[in-house]
Amino acid sequence: MRPPIASLVVLLLVVAALTVIGIDGVRAAPIPQAVLNGEQLIAADTAQSLRTAIDAEASTVRRTASAYPATSTSTPATTLKALTSARKSVLGGALLDRHTGKLLAAGGRTVPLAGVNARTAAGHGAIAPRLVTSGGPPQLLYFARVTLPAQQEDPDQDYQTPNRPERQWLLVVTETLPTLAAYGDGRTAEVLDKTGTALATAVHGKASPAATRGGLPATAAHAAHGSGRDTDASGSLLGDTTGNRRTVAGWAQVASTTGPGDTDDLGLVVLTSHTAPATTPAADYSRFALEAAGALAAVALLLGLALYFSVQRPLLRLFLSAGRLARGAAQDWPTASAELSRPVPVHGFGELARIGRALDSLRRQLLGESGPQDFPARRGPGYRALAVIGVLVVGCWAAPMVFLLNRADTVSAVPAPVLADQQTRAEIASGRIRQSLDHSYTDLSAAAASLPGRSRAAQTAVLRQSLADHKQYRSLYLLDRSGGITLRVGDSPLRTLVHVPDGGGITTVNTSGRIPAIAAYAQVQAVKGKTKAAGVVLFGEIDVKALNSILPRPKLGSVWVTDGHEKVLAASVGYRAFQSLPDSGLTRLARATQSAPGTAGTATSAVHLTSSGPSVDAAAPLAQSGPTARLGWHVVTAEPAAALQIPAVQAEQRTMLAGILGLAVGAACLGWLHVVVIRPLRAVAVLVERLAGGDRRTVLHPVNHDEIGSVTRSLELIRQALAERDRAARSGHAAGPSRSLRENTLQR
Question: Which of 622-635 are b and which e, b meaning 16 or more Cβ less than 10 Å from the residue's Cβ?
Answer without folding.
Answer: bbeebbbbebbbbb
